[in-house]
Design brief:
Layout lengths: L1 H21 L26 H10 L8 H4 L4 H33 L9 E4 L5 H7 L5 E6 L14 H14 L1 H5 L5 H6 L2 E2 L2 E2 L2 H10 L3 E10 L5 E3 L7 E7 L5 E8 L4 H6 L1 H7 L5 E5 L12 H8 L2 E7 L13 E7 L15 H8 L24 E7 L1
Parallel strand pairs: 1-2, 1-9, 2-8, 9-10
Antiparallel strand pairs: 3-4, 5-6, 5-7, 7-8, 10-12, 11-12
Helix pairs in contact: 2-9, 4-6
Length: about 400
């Protein structure tokens, strides 16, 4: 009997040990380690002088101690700052903020917004180019205005600086008040000896839209259509590298070119360059109805070539040139006769018919003033052509 109990005890103890060892252990939760992505390096300017000059011209405070910061207490610059702030507030309240809201709702969803922008007959109008196409990686503007280098501000007297800044503010009157530059006014504005041109306007628009200039080069176009850096006093244009967030680099080019057929036939490098831009969006505004004429056929080809969308007013492409098998058409506003400066021969009967046959609810008016009709009859019309 004693042996029986001893054997049973050993069996029971073995069983308990077996089952206790076979119980699953509780899982130990591993700590969640969040992956920390490295902060991308901030882009640096080749020279901070670009940004110092841009802030000075735009009436904005300097970010470090330099020549310009030393004159920020002077009366002429304080007056410039005050007037530039007033000019900019007026532009934002009357147009720019409204454009940004409208673009988000009505333009961006219908196009590929991250394509380069091609803007013929642009003058210095980076202001509207950026507000309509803020996601573009590159902006290519073309016009007749000179670009030339900036003066050496450090060698100018206070009186010379005062006059220069007053001329700069005066040159903004049309683009701020009417949404476009007037060529005749541009030819007389910003004249300071050998330093006449639209470059200071680009500096102002870049600074006031929150861009930092990384580099600026004077450029030409070679026979293959590629940009090359030009060290000559006379050059075809400028190329500006810039950033807003300090991480992503963008590009702005301005080229001085006569876009008539005779000029482009004599300068085939322009067509090679324009055709090398790849898929793009096109913006045309206040273009003097030049694209209505047969003598601007070459630049029309660059506008339609490899293009995703074209946003314009009636002063851009004549509707008869738009191939309805290639592009969809979205209308905005009401069609009316061109303003008196351009004559009845630019009136488009086919576009008028298209507007009349399109219900008003399908052609809403854009909620901001833009283009020639702003001043005269305030009856606006705009068209968006999108690739099928």
């Amino acid at each position: 009997m004693r042996q029986f109990f001893l054997t049973s005890y050993i069996f029971l103890l073995s069983a308990l040990l077996f089952f206790s060892c076979s119980k699953p252990e509780k899982e130990v939760q591993k700590p969640i380690i969040e992956e920390v992505k490295p902060t991308p390096p901030q882009l640096k300017a080749v020279s901070e002088e670009f940004n110092r000059a841009a802030l000075f011209l735009a009436g904005l405070p300097q970010l470090d101690s330099n020549y310009y910061s030393q004159i920020e207490k002077k009366e002429f610059w304080l007056n410039h700052k005050k007037q530039m702030n007033e000019i900019w507030k007026r532009a934002e309240d009357s147009r720019l903020n409204l454009i940004s809201s409208w673009v988000d709702q009505a333009l961006t969803p219908k196009i590929k917004p991250d394509l380069p922008l091609y803007y013929p007959f642009a003058g210095a109008d980076f202001l509207h180019a950026w507000h309509f196409y803020p996601k573009a990686p590159a902006y290519h503007l073309v016009a007749l205005e000179n670009v030339t280098k900036l003066p050496d501000f450090e060698k100018m007297t206070d009186k010379q600086l005062t006059d220069y800044l007053a001329s700069l503010r005066n040159s903004l009157r049309d683009v701020i008040g009417k949404s476009y530059f007037i060529t005749m006014h541009m030819q007389t504005d910003l004249r300071t000896g050998e330093y006449s041109g639209i470059l200071p306007l680009y500096y102002v628009f870049l600074a006031r839209t929150g861009h930092k200039l990384l580099n600026l080069e004077t450029i030409g176009i070679d026979s293959t259509g590629k940009h090359f850096v030009s060290l000559e006093e006379k050059f075809a244009g400028v190329r500006i590298k810039m950033t807003q967030d300090g991480i992503n680099e963008k590009e702005l080019t301005y080229m001085k070119f006569d876009l008539g057929d005779k000029s482009l036939e004599a300068n085939p490098q322009y067509m090679a360059w324009a055709n090398s831009l790849g898929e793009k969006n096109v913006f045309i505004k206040a273009a003097s109805y030049l694209l209505h004429y047969k003598s601007f056929g070459q630049v029309r080809k660059t506008i339609f070539s490899n293009t995703n969308s074209i946003f314009q007013d009636d002063s851009g492409l004549a509707y008869r040139y738009v191939d309805s098998t290639q592009f969809n058409t979205t209308l905005f506003g009401d069609y009316t006769r061109p303003i008196d400066d351009f004559g009845d021969h630019t009136f488009q009967k086919d576009l008028e018919k298209l507007y009349l046959n399109t219900p008003k609810e399908n052609r809403p008016m854009i909620p901001f003033p833009l283009g020639y009709h702003v001043v005269e009859d305030k009856i606006q019309n705009h068209q968006l052509f999108t690739k099928k």
